[in-house]
Give the backbone structure.
Amino acid sequence: MTVDDNLRRERPPAQLDGPFTQALVRTRRFFTRAQISDDSRTMYKIGGRQADDFYRDRWSHDKVVRSTHGVNCTGSCSWKVYVKDGIITWESQQTDYPSVGPDSPEYEPRGCPRGAAFSWYTYSPTRIRYPYVRGVLLQMYREAKNRLGDPVAAWADIVDDPVRAHSYKAARGKGGLVRASWDEATEMVAAAHVHTIQKWGPDRVAGFSPIPAMSMVSHASGARFVNLIGGSMLSFYDWYADLPVASPQVFGDQTDVPESGDWWNAGYLIMWGSNVPVTRTPDAHWMTEARYRGQKVVVVSPDYADNVKFADEWLPARPGTDAALAMAMGHVVLKEFFVDRSTPYFSDYVTKYTDLPHLVCLSDDGDGGFRPGKFLTAADLPDHQHEENAAFKTVLVDALTDGLVVPNGSLGHRYGDAGVGKWNLELGPVEPRLSMLEGDHEPVLVSLPRFDAPDGAAQTLARGVPARRIGDRLVTTVFDLLLAQYGVGRAGLPGDWTASYDDASAPYTPAWQEQITGVPAAAAARIGREFARNAEQSHGRSMIIMGAGTNHWFHSDTIYRAFLTLINLTGCQGVNGGGWAHYVGQEKVRPITGYTQMANALDWTRPPRNMIQTAYWYLHTDQFRYDQFGADTLSATTGLGQLAGKSTADVIAQSARMGWMPSYPTFNRNPLELADQAAAAGQPVADYVVEQLTTGKLGFAGEDPDAPENFPRVLSIWRANLLGSSSKGNEYFLKHLLGADSSLRATETAEGVRPRDVKWHQQAPEGKLDLLLTLDFRQTSTTLFSDVVLPAATWYEKHDLNTTDMHPFVHSFNPAIPPPWQTRTDWDAWQTIAAKFSELAATHLGVRRDVVAVPLTHDTPDAMANPHGVVRDWKAGECDPIPGVTMPKLVEVERDYGAVGAKMNAVGPLLDSLGATTKGITFDLATPLRYLAQKNGVVRGGPADGRPSLQRDVHVCEAILALSGTTNGMLATQGFKTLEERTGTRLADLAEEHEGKQVTFADTQNAPVPVITSPEWSGSESGGRRYSPFTINVERLKPWHTLTGRMHFYLDHDWMTELGEGLPVYRPPLNMAALFDEPVIGDVSDGSSGRVAGVTVRYLTPHNKWSIHSEYQDNLFMLSLSRGGQTIWMSNADADKVGIHDNDWVEAVNRNGVVVARAIVSHRMPEGTVYMHHAQDRLIDVPIAETSGRRGGIHNSLTRLLIKPSHLIGGYAQLSFAFNYLGPTGNQRDEVTVIRRRSQEVEY
Amino acid sequence: MRVMAQMAMVMNLDKCIGCHTCSVTCKQAWTNRSGTEYVWFNNVETRPGQGYPRGYEDQETWKGGWALNRRGRLSLRAGGRFKKLLTIFSNPKLPSIHDYYEPWTYDYSTLTDAPAQQHTPVARPKSLLTGENMKVSWSANWDDDLGGSTDHGHRDVMLKNLGDKVKFEFEQTFMFYLPRICEHCLNPSCAASCPSGAIYKRTEDGIVLVDQDRCRGWRMCVSGCPYKKIYFNHRTGKAEKCTFCFPRVEVGIPTVCSETCVGRLRYIGLMLYDADRVLDAASVTEPHDLYRSQRDVFLDPNDPAVVRAAEQAGIPRDWIQAAQRSPVWALINTYEVALPLHPEYRTMPMVWYIPPLSPVVDIVRDTGHDAEDKGNLFAAIESLRIPVEYLAELFTAGDVAPVTGVLRKLAAMRSYMRDISMGDAPDESIAAAVGMTGSALQDMYRLLAIAKYDERY
């Protein structure tokens, strides 16, 4: 009461502006029952508020239903859906997550504007209410069926007639969809499947639906059908380029990351290429709040991204150069924390948990020089060479005895009798020696690869390592090699060492990185030092959140390995509050075991045909026909020349025939016929196939993808928008796969560089696909180009389950309203299709035998198929073709096609006899299956008589929950006990606190339910702690699923050596000018001399603030809050060069296609780079392009697929295939485009 | 002393991620209907930027709020009530729809209905006002994330007094978000502007509402509100505004915008104030004094005299207790970290803001200093990426001292808590440097960082 009192003393009471006004406003008293303040300033009102009823009515509702959003996003936010008079009105976030503790923020609320706008779709004019079929196709089908009397014959009659097939394929994407009934539409779909299986083989059928964690039952619905008939399910994690290949390389794990609540525990946080407020909206608060605990926050981003606002430091590294910055930080960490002084926490950590002390042979490259070779293994030691799996047991030196030790825990201990109880990280009295510099050694000069020239050209560095002689071998440690690679010198070692941090000439100093990234050398050094110092003080609580900005590059695996080096050197992985936090497209089906059985139909038939989608489309959309360089373009000078003369398509074919990666369609013959022919020949199928292959009578489909017998014929898409979102090389899809109009401008591969092993057809096929089926609730590019569109229920109209790695809860979808109009849930729709299919298949197909080619698989003894990662190609005569060793396993499977519908609806008997296996642990399911039979009831009659029911979506939810350790404590405990036998360490206590707990669907309807610690994952939630990956490995000494059983800095596979990526290395973005003759970034052309007019810029497609992929991009709320259509962000510097102003119409053109959009010009963008946020579909306000005369494209019209050969490695330790675990990525960041202001008069 | 109760809100801009969830959930719940297509009771602005409607802070143009006249008396900037009556049929100070934006939709049904044709079907934007095709050229959030900054950024009204402190250059980029709802002012100029007496403040909680029966659609409130948070429903012909979600608040649920705020940055609480002193406080001569004078209107709910007076005024005991545990009271008064938005409008706004702490400028970084070092902490504050002067233009009528004071407290909290988080003994001198104790810093940390649901509301 100070200022005011003084004021009051000084002057008369305050009044309104004049006596007249005063009088006037006082009259209000007479006209209202309200109370006017004494000073007449304002009016208070008591009672008489009937007029407020409007707002009260508006707020009232009949019920609130829990649900969420089931694909596209890993947010996994539980929502309240409000319903009034049977109409969904709006949604708001649930706030009832179980508490994470009194001293921490909570997960409430979770949600974002995209989710908050979702209910718009329910009644929107883009809602698909009825089944639709392409009009011209439907007409032909009706005519043919009428004429022939049989759906299958009718379908065959159309698709086998080139003229009629062309007539409907060429009409794709051009309107003309007409309504059909469910009966008729699904009959066509069923007929197409039957015909395709009969004529071409079941592996010519494919299904695509991503991200099962977000709605497991919806995903499993179609997947179960596709797997039951023997079709191929296409991967998504690698296809989206969200799979960080560095994760299997380093951790031997697909991806395992901390929940966002663990960010809270970090003392130092770098957000590196991950724009958390936009892409992890519901989690971002953990970051903002952790700052209040004193967490330091650093952002590395080329633009002033949304998260820079929160950062203490912003390092604007140029796009794609992140590895250079990380390598320089690693240089500082190695020098200051390992060489200048020893840091006990770090050295203890790296010797226990990483491969740094393990020995590597130096291989003599013939002219007196050496390079890093293979890991020294027990097989190389006379005393150990006869041990079981000796080639898969690595070796180190014990500092105490100076003797060689074969430690427990490596891959060789994981399998076989001798390893029982020894697959662990116990070192006993051994103290691994980190460097050979201690003890007897000789300095050896080693050749190391470098790629830091602006054009990425391969060069060589020569740096010395201390080597020890063992027999006739020179060996050193991974640590010594790492120091050499990073350029951290030590006295007495020869080579090109850098003098100081300021030495810009040699990799990988801070000054060296400054020229590449633009980040000041001092800043790079300081942040690296701070990161490590924080880790040292806090014992590992330094974290890097990394995402699409660094993970969508061609060389992202090298970028990530540079990050992981920082993390692992500083002892941060497997520590709460530390380590990597990879968030892009990562998703965690927490109840993984149950989900996998349902989706892969492993309860009825094994193995499934799971295909790597990137390679699939690279071949089947003929993008390989437009390559202008060979696979060896990427090789290092220190490589072995193994890729010489090969095209990328050749490398894919080689990987497939060696059994490394899957390949479907597999052979150039119907696999059903192959099985029949083997039977006719009286031979086991595998023998017959090998014989046919070796005699050249049979070939791999991937060696001739343009032959009609090898086309994909039927593709079903649900929960996805392939053609408006993820199809890198969109125009190639339109042209070759669909036979539709396209704006493709690229030239085909010149004769000299065409594939050597893969057959080249003079004329590229167009319109390979016979049927494109889509199930969706809204129109997308995919539905507009589809032949049959089925109306799907939305996420507010069905039951399902949802989990994520961002939080530790499982929660549910529930129908707020029943599916309206003629929409159906995915489970219902696929049951309908399956029933129809079985009806037709019973007579047309009957019971058949199928030959499935299975790649060498991770977490099985297949990982020991290739000792030392040496490439052996049977086709080149380097070895014999032995199924399961040097080529795929060949498994014969019976398919009762008439029973598919019945099998969809019940849990099959294989689970009783074989159990379920996840990450190498087999679960005995007898008890949960008994429970399920009672919980769900059983099916009576037919092929599934007496089996637990899956007729309703809720039944599948219960099955998933009952058959997974994370939701069934009995299974978690059982799994740990099984694992204990192999590791010999104590684990089961992690789950025992919940041994009696069975999460039911009703539990998940009530509130989000915390999951149970299970051997299905690498971290622990026991005792209510936050989930951080690999804490079980660190705390319980359980090995990683790698060669050494430790986290790997070094990869000794032949092809890694070939690419110069045995150790972390910096590789710049691909040089599109050199590879594809695109203009150089910064080039400005006026359009003369046949060049495209405009400025050339780096073209990036980061995640969008207003959409999660293309969903929500068409949502009126999101469009109203943004610019209302396709946009490209660019810097004012680039805009000025070509006269572009904010909101001008622009065209972006490169060889892959053309985009028409409006420009957003802003100074927050760096010069030389534009952003067209992913995903912007062509459906909303996209005019005709001047360049092509056709509808402008999508963000992926300017991209295409480029495959990195090292992603195709298989059959060797952690570099072994598993679905969505390892495979070539559909990266799209290295692209450039020319952008210009176009005519502002646009036509549609 | 005449004790009254007021529902109030504090938004911690330091935690705002600019996601606009609040805008969407509010719109879905309240203004997703015809006549209010362009209306966002809650909007989020990127600053620097023009806001919505564009340039609304330019009171030279819009004449919103109050000003002191020559006699030192408070008068509506747009002219008194008498003048209002004279100009009732031609209000010149009304933003046009283009100052908001022309709302639009798309002909989505084309996507389904298009006959076989040459090109892929596309949905074109159609004006919701005219039904005609249009090129979308402005929206409620056009300059989100600095979009169009080089063409439009200089029109940010706040830049007038800042000279060249804000440059639209890559290296100097900064931004933050400003979510806005109705301020539910203690001295609402909208209510004073209404010729029909249709705008009133609810006695029990001070929520400002438009009586939908009484409103005659004169739109003087639209002009009178300097925050432009009253909107004209062109279908009903009535004014509409944020209701502070009274149907929810009445039954103990937070407002939609608060509960759905994923940044967890909104606090709702009850404030007790002396209604007799509002006009005095709004009439202080010096704009810099308005922040302080408004705070002095608030009554300490723990003061026995205030409690007695409140009881006498008929305020129920549980309301008094709510005022005592009010996070808004704590943030405004106990910790003094929340500031009013544009106090110079003299409306005594009741939605307050904690200003954003933001990255240190390159100068500090390039000198090799660690901004987390305690010694550097405050040096860093003085050279924040967001100019303190810009924040002062928003929150303290240009007075930088209170803004700096808040930022120093936030920085001190981070520094103090870091020691605890790293397992070290806390350094009490850090708390003392900002005039606080360690335990007060820890309490403030609990409210700002832990921020449990039942402590935010």
About this structure: The longest helix of chain A spans residues 826-844. The radius of gyration of chain A is 31 Å.
